[in-house]
């Protein structure tokens, strides 16, 4: 039909500028690959400049402009400095992916570690969204926020992640409030809840494995048994849904909370 935009055009992110936090590994890196493939210029954020340089080199096959910034997201001053360093640039898309999840039972988590989880997983997302929305409004421009949450925001999947669940529940609430308040400014905000995805961060539970190998094996087995699709997810499973949510395929979606979990929540 002549009045419909083609799928190729809908998925094309050429001339878009996207910020991705936690962009050098796991889900974040998978997102960077898919969005570069779709033509978006990228601003990649991570703590390690070495990892950022490596990721930029790996993405060099795509004809997009890639900027990298080493930022400690637990530090608000670092976040504000990042936005100042952007100069006059006005990004179109913000993807808050970075997160940490040290495993510790509720009574074993010290307050300093709890605060760091909240700072990285929630406070940084708030600060990034605040600066992004303000810059969009100052330039009378619409935009798209996609936050990466977790199943832990809606159901406790495993023991030892109370702090993480709290932080991700906050991200869900923040996303929906932004969607409601700024929809009339053509600013969309949605959140994806990944579940059971094999990433470097997930593998870093190896210390926990050494403490309780049978417990972790049991948790993994039970999780996989509950998945209707019968397999653990890969970063690209999340990245493909991210592409949907930041493209015009989702132009009438905002304030949505979308599980990408192999069917875990339905079982």
TrEMBL record:
Q: Which PROSITE patterns match?
A: ADH_SHORT (PS00061)
What GO molecular-function term can you cite, just one?
oxidoreductase activity, acting on the CH-OH group of donors, NAD or NADP as acceptor
**Any Pfam family hit:** adh_short_C2
Q: Which Gene3D superfamilies match?
A: NAD(P)-binding Rossmann-like Domain (3.40.50.720)
Q: Which InterPro entries match?
A: NAD(P)-bd_dom_sf, Sc_DH/Rdtase_CS, SDR_fam
Instruction: State the similarity comment.
Output: Belongs to the short-chain dehydrogenases/reductases (SDR) family.
List the protein's name. Answer: SDR family oxidoreductase
Organism for this UniProt entry: Candidatus Dojkabacteria bacterium
């Amino acid at each position: 039909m002549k009045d419909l935009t083609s799928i190729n055009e809908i998925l094309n992110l050429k001339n878009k500028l996207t910020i991705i936090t936690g962009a050098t590994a796991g889900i974040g890196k998978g997102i960077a690959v898919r969005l570069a493939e779709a033509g978006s210029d990228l601003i990649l954020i991570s703590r390690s400049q070495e990892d950022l340089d490596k990721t930029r080199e790996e993405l060099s096959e795509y004809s997009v402009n890639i900027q990298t910034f080493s930022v400690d997201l637990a530090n608000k001053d670092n976040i504000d400095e990042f936005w100042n360093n952007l100069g006059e640039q006005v990004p179109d898309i913000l993807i808050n992916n970075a997160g940490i999840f040290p495993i510790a039972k509720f009574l074993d988590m010290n307050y300093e570690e709890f605060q760091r989880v909240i700072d990285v997983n929630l406070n940084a997302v708030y600060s990034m969204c605040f600066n992004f929305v303000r810059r969009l409004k100052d330039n009378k421009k619409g935009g798209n926020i996609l936050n990466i949450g977790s199943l832990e925001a809606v159901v406790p999947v495993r023991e030892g992640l109370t702090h993480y669940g709290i932080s991700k529940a906050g991200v869900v609430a923040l996303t929906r409030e932004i969607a409601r308040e700024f929809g009339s400014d053509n600013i969309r905000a949605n959140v994806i809840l990944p579940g059971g995805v094999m990433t470097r961060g997930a593998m870093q539970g190896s210390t926990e494995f050494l403490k309780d190998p049978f417990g972790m094996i049991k948790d993994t087995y039970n999780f996989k048994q509950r998945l209707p699709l019968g397999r653990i997810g890969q970063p690209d499973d999340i990245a493909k849904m991210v592409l949907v949510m930041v493209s015009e395929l989702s132009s009438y979606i905002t304030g949505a909370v979308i599980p990408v979990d192999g069917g875990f929540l339905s079982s």
